[in-house]
Design brief:
There is one protein chain. Helix 1 runs antiparallel to helix 2, helix 1 runs antiparallel to helix 4 and helix 2 packs antiparallel against helix 3. The protein has one domain: Up-down Bundle (Four Helix Bundle (Hemerythrin (Met), subunit A)), CATH 1.20.120. It is built from four helices and no strands. By secondary structure, the protein is an all-alpha fold.
């Protein structure tokens, strides 16, 4: 997905790493699409929600791959991702079982993602940019870079 083709990734949340920004844009676009679908009717497009959660999984896997390629310690960040996926899948299960509504789920997912980009992904991208991604001719850094705004 080309950045700038959709208005759903606020400029303030761009992290200046094209692959990550494109995935962030795609997730925000999907959330917005689901909001529109759910607000227009009471129908919950189950496959589209599954697709959103799979986008989160793919995005988290991309970050993990990039961290590995850069020799970064991704342990704390990966824990945040794993915990979030558990919460999102459970919350979606609650939507399906009638214990939560789709709108609340989407608001939560969007809020969580905005905060995660601001607090965690910015630190991650800074670490990437200080690694071989910013200086491809330099040797890979030792795997002692750790980053996370919280555990």
């Amino acid at each position: 997905m080309e950045i700038g083709s959709s208005p759903f990734l606020p400029e303030a949340l761009m992290v200046d790493f094209p692959e990550i920004d494109a995935q962030h844009e795609e997730i925000f676009t999907r959330i917005e699409s689901l909001k529109t679908a759910c607000f227009e009717s009471s129908y919950v497009p189950i496959e589209a929600f599954h697709g959103l959660l799979e986008l989160f999984e793919q995005h988290f896997a991309t970050e993990e791959r990039l961290a590995g390629e850069a020799g970064l310690d991704f342990t704390d960040h990966a824990k945040i991702h794993a915990s979030t996926l558990r919460v999102l899948w459970k919350a979606f299960g609650d939507v399906l079982n009638g214990g939560n509504d789709a709108h609340a789920f989407l608001r939560y997912a969007e809020y969580w993602f905005e905060r995660h980009i601001s607090e965690d992904d910015r630190l991650f991208v800074q670490a990437l940019q200080s690694s071989h991604f910013a200086h491809p001719a330099m040797p890979w850094p030792a795997a002692n870079h750790s980053f996370s705004a919280r555990v």
